Amino acid sequence: MVFQRSIVDQVSGWLAVYNDGFVDRTWTGPPQFKFMSDPVPPHHNFINGVATHDLFTHPDSDLRVRVYLPEIPDSGKLPIILHFHGGGFCISQADWFMYYNTYTRLAREAGAIVVSTYLRLAPEHRLPAAIDDAYSTLLWLQDLADGKVQQPWLSSHGDFNRVFLIGDSSGGNIVHQVAKRAAGENLYPLRLAGAIPIHPGFLRSEKSKSELEKPESPFLTLDMLYKFLKLGLPVGSTRDHPITCPMGEVLQGLDLPPYLLCVAEEDLVIDTEMEFYEEMKKAGKKVELLVSNGIGHSFYLNKIAIDLDPKTSEETRKLIQGISHFIGNH
Q1: CB of 224 within 8 A of CB of 169?
Q2: What is residue 127's DSSP assignment?
Q3: Terminus of the chain with fewer CB atoms < 10 Å: N or C?
Q4: Sheet of 50-56: strands edge to edge?
Q5: Looking at residue 302, what is its pLDDT?
Q6: CA-CA distance, 103 to 114, in Å (whole number)?
Q7: What one-character DSSP code corresponds to residue 96?
Q8: Beta carbons within 10 angstroms of residue 75's beta carbon
Q9: pTM value?
């Protein structure tokens, strides 16, 4: 009997899951968008003021990171931004062009080293695998801080007293999970100075008003959102899982760093993001809000829109500036 491979689940344009467990992430959407998911090779020389390097965190580890080092002469030690990429826990990589384009710019403008983790992807590696990878990267930075391991760019230039977590979309969920896990640990001599969830995928099983009324975008449709989470969350979980629905959690007693929650006015999940913001304030946590007006989910990753649409370009400038100011003030 010949085994016939067939698709059992898919997210249009992004991903197909087959009955033998194989996952195909070949881009099948409009070809003009493909370049944004193309990998950018690392370059140790400075291009537009930033050099990049890929490395394994430990000799016996499969955990990799991409490091962005800005060319800032005589500036002393630089803050470190630990980045977790988005993609609904199921797609994307740290070396994709959309992240390269954004985080080289942030490294330059914030005057900071960016460390971006290559996270394991679902459904082959369901949550909490990506969260474990993210937290392991933070512990690796702690090892660098106390000299247990050496990495020239970070050991020589990084200020381990000013480490910030940042994440896009589902990476924003990971920011909060890592910040919570770190709250109960002694990370000395590393200090977690801030957390920046950008358009995090916070939602409930019951659809919010914004999910029902806001427009879908190239970076987020309801079908994409719900299918990725079904494939990414632990088996048997609903969208009310704490990773996607932290709004009802007890936050009192958690020693969380200051937060900068970045939201977009036209994001499908802005209502539940704002619910999280209000819960943080009620719990007495330090949380600032940065709102991008008249624009949708993860707009700043869309190079085509940034180049062609003045509104997207201006809101991207404001977002990068706001994040840079938050880092500069902490």
Answers
A1: no
A2: T
A3: N
A4: 50-56, 64-70, 113-117, 78-84, 158-168, 192-198, 259-264, 287-292
A5: 96
A6: 7
A7: B
A8: 10
A9: 0.97
- Report d(CA 34, CA 218) in Å as an integer: 12
Q: How far is Cα of residue 318 from the mean position of the Cα atoms in its chain?
A: 19
Q: Which residues are catalytic?
A: 169, 267, 297
- Listed as ranges, residues in the chain with pLDDT below 50 are none
Rg of the chain in Å (alpha carbons): 19
Q: Which residue has the tokens 């409009």?
A: 30
**Tokens at 241, concatenated:** 């899982």
| Contact status, residue 79 vs residue 163, Cβ threshold 8 Å | yes
User: CA–CA separation, 209 vs 201, rounded Å?
Assistant: 15
CB-neighbour burial class of residue 161 (10 A; exposed 0-12, middle 13-18, buried 19+): middle
Separation between Cα atoms, residue 281 and residue 286, nearest integer Å:
7
Q: What one-character DSSP code corresponds to residue 176?
A: H
* Among candidate residues 254, 227, 113, 104, the one with its CA nearest the CA of residue 170: 227
Measure the CA–CA gap between 55 and 237, rounded to whole angstroms: 34
